[in-house]
Design a protein that fits this description.
Blueprint (H helix, E strand, L loop, with lengths): L2 H10 L1 H8 L7 E3 L3 E2 L5 E6 L4 H11 L4 H6 L3 E2 L12 E6 L2 H4 L4 E8 H5 L12 E9 L6 E10 L7 E12 L4 E5 L7 E4 L2 E6 L3 E6 L4 E2 L9 E3 L5 E3 L4 E13 L9 E5 L4 E5 L16 E6 L10 E3 L2 E4 L5 E7 L2 E6 L4 E6 L3 E6 L4 E7 L7 E6 L6 E6 L6
Parallel strand pairs: 9-17
Antiparallel strand pairs: 1-26, 2-22, 3-17, 3-21, 4-9, 5-29, 6-7, 7-8, 8-9, 9-10, 11-12, 12-13, 13-17, 14-17, 15-16, 18-19, 19-20, 20-22, 23-24, 24-25, 25-26, 27-28, 28-29
């Protein structure tokens, strides 16, 4: 979401945002359609081992904490959605607690789930838990630039309390004899969990990679500004109890002459790929590009949840829509969300495009496979006092 838009939302206050939250999900109607681009223009270079030595040293000092243990200590309550979202096929969801709902220094952006990580086996449970994962960026103050990023793990399982836990994303630093870490200063506009790996969009680069088996426990004391190893050997993390250190980087390049803007990402489990798209404007946007956006698909290595050392795109599209905050793809189908138009676009090469009403202040999209019920599209809203995380039946938005 643009800084200017967020400033207007804050100034306007809760009543204006509330009014904008309610939408009418109209029946799909034909719309402009994407057009193919040469996929060979776009490549990725992956490095999953760049922090191995530092991470080994951090683990030796702090140990790792499995996801189920992190969730056993979940200390925030998710609450029911009270807004009327007006969405066809609405299937439920939750809202973050009152503090996170009104926090103008932190903004939720990306969404994925344990269904992305493991599929439908054991009802999509990773380490015994069915989870929704949301990425956030943190400002130094309301409306300022990004200073750090985090994830939130949310229990979405009737067998466990309605709780969630925050984990700070960090980048390893220091030396193997005195390992430390620093903040990951990115927008975290999209996130995908595949196997043990968590891929987080890095707007100008590509993706940061994290390993969910390497969560570290830190000392929640100190001051809110302290991060990393201290002179006495204590590890602080802005009062967080857990950090997730980066393990690698996936860097994008192109021969098209215009670098990709990694605004958001999503996992396509059917094809074993990540799809991305760009937030751009037709004109008049600062600091976003003023040009048509693109969507690009990058396949994982065969049978793996990692990319090869070098990966060439398998599909690239020029898009007719602007201000895109969300993208999803599954079984040859695509969905795009425009926060500017407050619309969800559905497209396949065979059927063309369809347009649906959607929420305001929306962000990323994640596809939820369900072997026993309806497949879902999960999404979320970032606006203050309306930080809803919700699901709809995808069949209501497939033409």
């Amino acid at each position: 979401m643009s800084i200017r838009t967020r400033m207007l939302a804050v100034v306007a206050g809760g009543l204006a945002i509330a009014a904008a939250t309610v939408v009418n999900a109209t029946n799909g109607y034909a719309a402009a359609a994407p057009t193919p681009l040469p996929a060979s223009q776009f490549t990725l270079t992956a490095n999953y081992s760049q922090f191995d030595a530092l991470n080994d040293a951090l683990v030796a000092r702090l140990g790792t904490v499995p996801v189920h243990t992190v969730m056993d200590s979940a200390n925030h309550d998710r609450v029911a959605i009270t807004d009327s979202l007006g969405l066809a096929g609405y299937a439920g969801g939750f809202r973050f607690d009152s503090t996170d709902n009104m926090d103008c220094t932190n903004y939720p952006q990306g969404i994925t789930s344990s269904r992305d990580a493991v599929g439908t086996a054991d009802n999509g449970r990773y380490d015994g838990r069915q989870l929704i994962l949301v990425s956030w960026y943190t400002n130094d103050g309301c409306l300022f630039t990004e200073t750090r990023s985090r994830i939130t793990l949310v229990d979405w399982d009737a067998a466990y309390p309605n709780k969630y836990r925050k984990i700070l994303l960090v980048e390893p630093t220091g030396t193997t004899t005195a390992p430390s870490f620093k903040d990951v200063r990115i927008h975290a506009g999209g996130v995908s969990w595949y196997g043990h790996y968590l891929y987080v969009a890095d707007t100008s680069r590509g993706m940061r990679v994290f390993d969910m088996r390497k969560i570290l426990r830190t000392n929640p004391g100190g001051t809110s500004s302290q991060i990393g190893r201290q002179p006495d050997g204590t590890y602080y993390a802005h009062n967080y109890s857990y950090v997730l250190p980066q393990v690698g980087t996936v860097t994008a390049s192109t021969t098209s002459g215009t670098s990709l803007v990694w605004s958001t990402i999503s996992l396509d489990r059917v094809s074993g790929s990540i799809v991305m798209t760009e937030y751009t404007c037709a004109s008049g946007c600062i600091p976003y590009p003023n040009r048509a956006p693109r969507a690009v698909r990058f396949p994982f290595a065969p049978g793996a949840t990692t990319f090869a050392a070098t990966t060439t795109s398998s599909q690239a599209l020029a898009l007719p829509w602007y201000k895109l905050n969300g993208v999803a793809s599954h079984n040859g189908r695509w969905w795009f969300y425009s926060s500017g138009a407050k619309q969800l676009y559905y497209w396949t090469p065979a059927t063309g495009s369809f347009t649906y009403g959607w929420v305001s202040s929306g962000e990323s999209i994640s596809y939820w496979e369900d072997a026993a019920g309806a497949d879902l599209l999960w999404s979320l809203q970032e606006s203050l006092s309306h930080r809803n995380v919700f699901a709809v039946q995808q069949a209501s938005y497939d033409g």
